[in-house]
Input
Amino acid sequence: MADDQPLSGRVTIAPQVLTTIVRQTALSTEGVLRLAVRLPRRSRFGGRRAVAPGIEVFVSDGQVQVAVHIIADPGANMLRLAETLQTEIARAIEHIVGLQVASVNVAIDNVAFVSAGAVQP
Output
């Protein structure tokens, strides 16, 4: 087989892979204390769907739509934090999986204060 000919076959990436990427990216972003525990509602988006605590991902026509709910550090600039999350989550998905990201919706559901090793909402 020649090197310039693509192999035939199918590649399948489970939507749960995307929720893992979103979770790891969000939790590694300064200012995010944790993901919010939020039950997803029925969505108006079509396509394949994956959910995890605080995360909802849809894949349709080769594009990804993400919703992430976080608990933030009250010392963080909330607008900058949300914009950073949008950029970093889209970059991670596009780099790791190779799918185009159509949207990343960030909801800061609450802030939590850290005192003496305990996080208080």
In short: The two ends are 59 Å apart (CA to CA).
